[in-house]
Amino acid sequence: MEVAPDDQVLDAVDRIIEREGLPGLSLSSIAAEAGISRVTLHRRGISVADCLVGVLVRASDDLRAALWPVATGAGDAASRLDAGLRVLCEVAERHAGVVIRFFGEPNLPIPGKPGRTTSLEFIELFERLLRDGMADGTLHVTDPSREATLIANTVFWIYLHMTRAHRWPSDEATDRAIAMATGTVRTDRRGGS
Question: N or C: which end of the chain has fewer CB within 10 A?
């Protein structure tokens, strides 16, 4: 019987990835970091791949929980998109040590959710906001799925790069990344907050 990795195991995976990157992950290193035996992981049916998906799903669950009130709240879609992208930067900050190591890695399927991937979990609510913007006239979008993928990834990765590599203050990195990423879809063409 397979059991999803618990928080103790996922916390250990987070620490290893932050410290050593993806190559540092093995069942032995995860077990040692979590303070459990490797046999325990085997008995639970937990693989390294399960752990990788687990840390990404935990980050996407954090994003979904933080973004849901914004996505479903009051106000025009352009304003909610801006607020949602700010939430995305906050979540990126909370999970930076792990997600940075996944840059350029392929999407991972989520067990028990056919057709769902770790990337889709990050993008879906942004697509909803873009569709809302098409409906209320505050956003001009031709392909909401592709635009949501582009906008969310642009903000996410530029925010992380500017705060980490260039030491920009998080507020400035957030504002500039959002303005750049949404400038072409905003019907008012202000392109920012």
Answer: N
